[in-house]
Amino acid sequence: MNTPCTPVDTERTVLYVSNSPDQELVEFLAASGWQAVHAKSTAAAERLIERGNIKVGLVQLPDDCTSQHLSALASCMRRAETNWVAQIVPGQTENELISRFILDYCFDFVTRPWLNDRLMFALGHAHGLSSLRQTRVTPEPSLGRHGMVGQCEAMQQLYRRIDKCGVTNAPVFVAGESGTGKELTARAIHERSPRAGRAFVAINCAAIPPSLLQAELFGHERGAFTGALQRKIGRIESAHEGTLFLDEIGDMPHECQAVLLRFLQEGTIERLGGNALIHVDVRVISATHVDLDKAVEDGRFRSDLYHRLCVLRLVEPPLRERGGDIKLLANYALSMYRQDGARKLRGLSSDAIVAMSNYQWPGNVRELINCVRRAVVMSEGRFITASDLGLPEADNGPAVTLAEIRSKAEKDAIEHALQRHGYRLSEAAAELGISRATLYRLMHANRLHQDPAGGRASNPNGGTDAGDEGQRHAPSLV
Ligand SMILES: Nc1ncnc2c1ncn2[C@@H]1O[C@H](COP(=O)(O)OP(=O)(O)O)[C@@H](O)[C@H]1O
Ligand SMILES: [Mg+2]
């Protein structure tokens, strides 16, 4: 038997976790072509799992198994790659905690004294399924070189634009709904610019009380106002030679807009209560979720400041328009928070993916990450399901078949043609490219009639056609 210090060959290897190993079992495993690697403690088991790609584990529950034993085991069995088979003594499944533990963390269980075939079947099956999962597993989405997850066309275009913005010094304005990643974009631009090694200073204009915003941006001298006990360097000055990110600029009060404009025009600031002009070299990136054009129109935002800030403009796509990226981002969120769950989570179920794709995500990526994080904690099974996500049902209305759509389109087209031609059937038929007889038949099939109250009821069997004689009757749809 291997000990924890020998390298692990992961093919047909079973990690045997037991504080009192059963020598007979180990010999049987070896004789059956399994290499058993023994771990006496959960810490040792964790180290082995870290080192090798262990597909199968056999965990022998102690006869006097307590909840402490179980939670220590659970922490190392939570990893998704290993399929565990529990070895228990008769009667242990009657213990609520143990049966819950087996359901949550184990692929199967065998009862001692084990039956050779049963044990081989369970281990072989666990190994097979684990290999299957590994070959199908999509690589865990990682942050790309722009620090973001996303491969859809809109994101690819955003990446290209970020690269372009990186090489110039011009101000960039980032538009987009809340939670779409405006701040990430600002950071990515900074990282790709020659200022990358310098400070990136972000300030959220909406989060600071208007009366304090100016002091926060420009700094103040000692005694500038009551409570200004010492000199404070403002955010603009601390971004010298780096990038200043003005977040939620749409919420900036008017007085502050005027001072900011002066700084953008002249490249100098004055600390509050001071009179020295200080030259500051910063690259400005701004963002807001409000419609800045509308704010300018309404007089809430200065148009001269708007033009200074929006030299280059990027727009973050809303999450609902990112297609398959929703799944990538959900898996990314799962990989970040997987450890928060009480249970070993294998992933997202397909109904969860469907529910996420149908949801509109008003809070965008931020909402999706929080939603997955909450589901990790709340989920009861091995996969996060649609109900764990707690998303409202998509309101798509009743399902409509293609035949229903066609027939509605046909009825609408006939009705409109009839209306346009004042119910002169020959003209309506000519426009529709059908014979008068066919039009009559279709009107009948679609239960489209001329209004009998108009004087002349339509007669699908031929005869007088009121419309054709130039009389107009309001149609009545039956
Ligand atoms: N494409 C993305 N990939 C990974 N995480 C993202 C992505 N977009 C946004 N996020 C995450 O979502 C949250 C909101 O992003 P943020 O940049 O603050 O959005 P905004 O400024 O538009 O409100 C942050 O936690 C951010 O890391
Ligand atoms: Mg933001």
UniProtKB/TrEMBL annotation:
CDD domains according to UniProt: AAA
Top-rank lineage group of the source organism: Bacteria
Record-linked SMART domains: AAA
InterPro entries for this protein: AAA+_ATPase, AAA_lid_NorR, CheY-like_superfamily, Homeodomain-like_sf, HTH_Fis, P-loop_NTPase, Sigma_54_int, Sigma_54_int_dom_ATP-bd_2
Domain Sigma-54 factor interaction: 148-377
Region listing for Disordered, in residue ranges: 450-478
Swiss-Prot/TrEMBL keywords: ATP-binding, DNA-binding, Nucleotide-binding, Transcription, Transcription regulation
Gene Ontology MF, one: sequence-specific DNA binding
PANTHER family given in the database record: TRANSCRIPTIONAL REGULATOR-RELATED (PTHR32071:SF120), TRANSCRIPTIONAL REGULATORY PROTEIN (PTHR32071)
Protein name: Sigma-54-dependent Fis family transcriptional regulator
